[in-house]
Amino acid sequence: MTDAALPPLSAERARRIARAFLPDWPLGNRYHYYYARAKLRSDPLYPGVCEALRGTSAPVLDLGCGLGLLAHALHEEGIAVRYFGVDHDARKIIDARRAASRSDLVDAGFETVDLARSLPPHRGSVAMLDVLQFFTPERQQALLDGMVAMLEPGARLVIRTGLDDGSRRARLLRGTPC
């Protein structure tokens, strides 16, 4: 499946998910709110991943989950699977937990894990979205082997990766905080 297969989320659906990332006070930082809203509204990634995971009941491990937008997209699509997201950025994990709590995502969990060093234990489906290209070729192979070993019958492996081709876009992605 390619990204062009499905359109991004509608403006209303993206706004509904993004609301979970609003600050607790009126003058708080709204960066993650606007980031989530723009990402969900412009990138067909989440509808595509939801479609790939539709029909499986296997729990999902999201490697490099960032703010946990996949958990929200799965919930929005009515795909009721247990979700566990890991990311190396502890601040994002704190914000992901807060947003999941606000959205009543009861089957969603988040932990800080450095994928350059280890993979968490898991059996089920695995998603790695826009992360693999940031590892050395040796670590990429180890991660791929580890992800395949996590799969169980009926589970799915979903990977989207950009090429680290030295371009301005690749450098920008590598330096982007979200």
Structure characterization notes:
- There is one protein chain.
- This protein has one domain: 3-Layer(aba) Sandwich (Rossmann fold).
- It has a five-stranded parallel sheet, with helices on both faces.
- It is globular.
- It has helices at residues 11-18, 31-42, 45-53, 69-76, 90-102, 137-150, 168-175, and strands at 60-63, 83-87, 108-112, 125-129, 157-160.
- The longest helix is centred in the last third of the chain and has 14 residues, at 137-150.
- Helix 1 packs antiparallel against helix 2 and helix 3 (45-53) crosses helix 4.
- Helices cover 40% and strands 13% of the residues.
- With 178 residues, it is an alpha/beta fold.
- The protein is built from seven helices and five strands.
**Order of neighbouring strands in the sheet with most strands:** 3-2-1-4-5
Spans where pLDDT lies below 50 across 5 or more residues:
174-178
Radius of gyration: 16 Å
CATH class: Alpha Beta
Number of individual domains: 1
Instruction: Report the structural category.
Output: alpha/beta
Averaged pLDDT, please?
91
> N-to-C SSE series?
HHHEHEHEEHEH
Layout of secondary structure:
Blueprint lengths: L10 H8 L12 H12 L2 H9 L6 E4 L5 H8 L6 E5 L2 H13 L5 E5 L12 E5 L7 H14 L6 E4 L7 H8 L3
Parallel strand pairs: 1-2, 1-4, 2-3, 4-5
Helix pairs in contact: 1-2, 3-4
